[in-house]
Amino acid sequence: MLITIRLFARLREIAGASELRREIAEGATAGTAWEQLIVEFPAMAGYTTAVSCAVNEEYARFGAALGEGDEVAFLPPVSGG
Amino acid sequence: MTVEDPRYRVTPQPLDASEAAALVSTSGSGAVVTFLGLVRDHNLGRRVLWLDYEAFEPLARKAFAQIGDEAAGRWPSVRLAIHHRVGRVAIGEASVAIAAASPHRAEAFAASRFAIERIKQIAPIWKHEHFEGGEVWIEGATADPDDRAACEAAFERACS
Questions:
Q1: d(Cα A48, Cα A35) in Å, to the nearest integer?
Q2: Best of B52, B67, B137, B147 to disrupt the A interface by mutation (most A CBs within 10 Å)?
Q3: B137 CB near a chain A CB, below 8 Å?
Q4: Closest C-alpha among B86, B102, B88 to residue B34
Q5: What digits encode the pLDDT tens for the residues B89-141?
Q6: Are A44 and A14 in contact (CB under 8 A)?
Q7: Rounded to a whole number, what is the distance in Å from the CA of A64 to chain B's nearest CA?
Q8: CA A9 to CA A26: how far, in whole Å?
Q9: Rounded to whole angstroms, how far apart are CA atoms A19 and A42?
Q10: What ipTM, to 2 d.p.?
Q11: Alpha carbon separation from B149 to B33, B66, B115 (Å, rounded)
């Protein structure tokens, strides 16, 4: 199934894009999508213990199931304010 | 789709504390505390030239609304507005404006402090610091809006 991956800040720079469309296996979770992403971009691997995720513009857990057309966003540690 | 709440805003435009205050004060308000977070010219020994802010805007607005709800849970009479700038922000300009209104001053002061602490914990916003000799993404907290201990820590700082 096809999903959209949104990336921000340093993660966006590593990928060279703020948005990626990727095929992912049926039954995949946000965590699966992250694992697939760090294979493609090994420089992101160091973020594994610090990254947060959101599915369809809501904060989510890495165990959250993804469906066709879903958007998963990966968020490096935040620094607003 | 719900209409966007003007109290929770992400904008490339300069921020105006009095505008934020006007969004939360009512005839029952006895106090409005406004807070401006400014871009300063130094950080960790570096001479800062400007900051570029990036946000995941729809999620940032939701995070602001969550902060407003959390504040109202603690101080039911408090109304909050949170406006955050994105894009390039010059030294001395405001990156964030918070207004907290309540019938009495203590809650308004506490809620404004709580809001800025909580923004730094859970708002999906990133500052890209441009300093003399380079640039760096500032990475602070791993955002987890369900982390109750972090929320309690923010309340504690607000009330100390």
A1: 9
A2: B137
A3: yes
A4: B102
A5: 999 999 999 999 999 999 999 999 999 999 999 999 999 999 999 999 999 99
A6: yes
A7: 15
A8: 29
A9: 17
A10: 0.97
A11: 26, 16, 15
